[in-house]
Amino acid sequence: MIRNLNIYSEDKIKYNKSLISEIIKRLKNDLNFKIDSIELNFVSSDKMIEINKKYLDHNFPTDIITFNYSDKNDSLDGEIFICSEVAKENASAFNCSADDEILRLIIHGFLHLLGYNDIEENEKSEMKLKEDTYVNKYKGLLQGNSFTI
Questions:
Q1: Which of 26, 83, 120, 131 is within CB 3.0–4.6 Å of 48 for a Cys-Cys bond?
Q2: pTM (global) more than 0.70
Q3: In angstroms, rounded to a whole number, what is the distance separating the alpha carbons of residues 121 and 87?
Q4: Over the stretch 53-93, which tens digit does the pLDDT of each residue have?
């Protein structure tokens, strides 16, 4: 397990913390960062709506929200919230497995913590390219494994 990484499930689903830790360990090595403190939270749609209302003035659930508490891009301090319900909906829409979509979201969250953005079109393209690179690189870890237990 990775020191200073906490994984929580508010949505009553048990997550495979070993698999998640292995993916994050590989991201750390590939993208050269340290973790001061990271909380990875899997939440329900209701909780995601609550977070969206409070911080982003949206009244709907999103698949992921990332909060970066540091101004450093090499030593991360932040929180990632992933809505498993929206991830499952996205998986269906994108014709992929829920595990593939959760992998993508974990990578996406860490890219945000590393300073990548997806607001402007050029930034979005760069971030998507990085995201796809690491999804393809780590997808083999999902063979015989699942994020949920």
A1: 83
A2: yes
A3: 23
A4: 999 998 999 999 999 999 888 899 999 999 999 999 999 99
